[in-house]
Design brief:
The protein is of the alpha/beta class. The chain has one domain: HUPs (Rossmann fold), CATH 3.40.50. The N and C termini lie far apart (36 Å).
Amino acid sequence: MANSKIKSLSQLKKITQQIKNRGKQIVFTNGCFDIIHVGHIKYLEKAAKYGDVLIIAVNSDKSVKTIKGKTRPFNKQLERAYILSAFSFVDYVIIFNEKTPHRLIKSLKPDVLVKGGDWPKSKIIGRSTVKKYGGKVINIPFVKGFSTTKLIQRIRLIL
């Protein structure tokens, strides 16, 4: 069942320790994922290939409002987490309330931290933390033509 992939921080800490004990690589990424589109899917498929287990941290509704404004998110946090958990290449999903996932990254210590090309490597949250313990930080090129903002603009033109 897809929603069994949605975990709390305490659950994920135990799970990630077990994964690391088996010598497996943990990949971590995060985002709002408000309206899932092809760009998100291609990005996440690529991210998953950098390790054995993919964890996605999803901004809570409160966090999205802080980042994107009072009209967002369109989809509630549990709906967004459930959609992401349904993908076969996603192993775990966690919802976080902070503006950034820095606390999660420090707690889970992923082997690979991945962000999209719209984030310069130097600005990726958690970069220095991951580098300190020997992890990798990877920037996946942005999938051109796909963005939530562009999708919202197209929908508004139709309405």
